[in-house]
Design goal:
The protein is an alpha+beta fold. The protein has one domain: Nuclear Transport Factor 2, Chain: A. The protein is about 35% helix and about 40% strand. It contains 4 helices and 6 strands. A 6-stranded mixed sheet has the order 2-1-6-5-4-3. A hairpin with a 5-residue loop joins strand 5 and strand 6. The chain is globular, with a radius of gyration of 15 Å. The N and C termini lie far apart (about 45 Å). The relative contact order is 0.21.
């Protein structure tokens, strides 16, 4: 973690996001949770239970845990992570299984990362209709 008053550079912010994706892949939700600020907001899309705003760290983590419990064999292939002083974007191919069917989705995550390397806001762009189909079948 950065020392108080230390401003992380872009590469360090990208590394924090990469570590959070790696932690999710290992099922380490504690580390994932540690990557968010207490007042973080997660913006979901679409008309599924994941398609709304989740306000606060606990609500954000509950959403992530619900996703992890809804699907099996979740794999996130991170193609690239790009950033600037304020935002980090991850290009991801996600593969999940539910009810014996496998779904693959190309996703873009955009994170507002503060100077301490914590995510205060997140947006996900994904195929929400495919997600809806997977939840309804």
């Amino acid at each position: 973690m950065a020392e108080t008053g230390t401003k992380l550079n872009v590469d360090q912010k990208i590394e924090r996001v990469r570590r959070a994706f790696d932690a999710f892949g290992r099922g380490d939700l504690q580390t994932v949770g540690d990557s968010f600020t207490e007042d973080a907001v997660w913006h979901g899309r679409g008309s599924t239970k994941f398609g709304k705003d989740f306000k606060g760290k606990q609500a954000t983590l509950a959403n992530i845990m619900e996703y992890a419990q809804t699907y099996q064999d979740i794999k996130q292939d991170v193609h690239d992570i790009l950033g600037n002083d304020n935002h980090v974007a991850a290009l991801v191919t996600a593969t999940v299984t539910r009810n014996g069917k496998t779904y693959q989705d190309h996703q873009v995550f955009v994170f507002h990362v503060n100077d301490e390397g914590k995510v205060s806001e997140a947006w996900i762009a994904s195929d929400t209709e495919q997600l809806k189909q997977s939840l309804e079948s």
